Amino acid sequence: MIQEDGDLDGLVRKRIRALRVAQGWSLDELAGRAKLSPSSLSRIENGQRRLALDQLVTLARALDTSLDQLVETDTDDVIVSPMLDGASGNMRWPIKAEPGMTVMRQRMTTPPPDNPASLRAHSGREWLVVLSGTAVLLLGNRRLRVETNQAAEFPTMLPHAIGTAGGPCEILGIFDREARRGHNADKKA
After folding, report:
1. Is there a contact between 107 and 90 (Cβ–Cβ < 8 Å)?
2. Are 160 and 137 in contact (CB under 8 A)?
3. What is the three-class DSSP state of 163?
4. Per-residue pLDDT, 170
5. Fewer CB within 10 Å, N or C, the chain?
């Protein structure tokens, strides 16, 4: 049973109800999916019944989430401060993503490298969304302009580099686990 913190108990109950409502499900629908009676589910949501671990696992599964996400309390880092990348001088805002994914908001101020030998390739997949300005994506022999509100997706096995086109731009870079590992290895080299 979860008893360590009344705040956690209340938070979990609110999440269960909020996730149910967000799906557009009635108490009866979620209760059926979780193999609980509607009255039991109602008492869980309203704090009239203790939360049992086995019920939380079943409810998380029925709500298409994980137990970890259902009971997560780490909300200290809602506001993310930018970091200056000493090697490139780029401003970065690390943002949490799904397991295995990394999302990085970055302010870029320099164009991509002119030297084709500067392009890097590694396993993985990468996505970028331009939040403001214009980014230039060098992808193999191609030079692509990615404008504000446009996105690009590419396998990182293609030699690639990203920079700006004439002025600062902000991008959201999304990396799968392999692509992130490749970028980290590039920085260490």
Report:
1. yes
2. yes
3. strand
4. 94
5. C
Q: How many CA atoms lie within 13 A of 109 on its CB side?
A: 7
- Asked whether the predicted pLDDT for residue 77 surpasses 60, the reply is no
User: Is a pLDDT exceeding 90 seen at residue 31?
Assistant: yes
Give the ranges where 66-167 is alpha helix by DSSP (H): 67-71
Q: What is the pLDDT of residue 34?
A: 93
Each residue's pLDDT tens digit, 124-183: 888 889 999 999 999 888 899 999 989 998 888 888 999 999 899 999 988 887 777 766
Angle at 77 between CA 92 and CA 6, to 5 degrees: 170
Q: Which residue has the tokens 């203790």?
A: 50
pTM summary value: 0.53
DSSP class of residue 105?
Answer: E
CA dihedral 59, 63, 68, 73 (to 10 degrees): -100
pLDDT tops 80 at residue 83: no
Residue 95 buriedness (CB in 10 A; 0-12 / 13-18 / 19+) = middle
Domains of the chain plus CATH, in order, are 6-71 (1.10.260.40), 83-188 (2.60.120.10)
Burial classification of residue 53, based on how many CB atoms lie within 10 Å of its CB (0-12 exposed, 13-18 middle, 19 or more buried): exposed
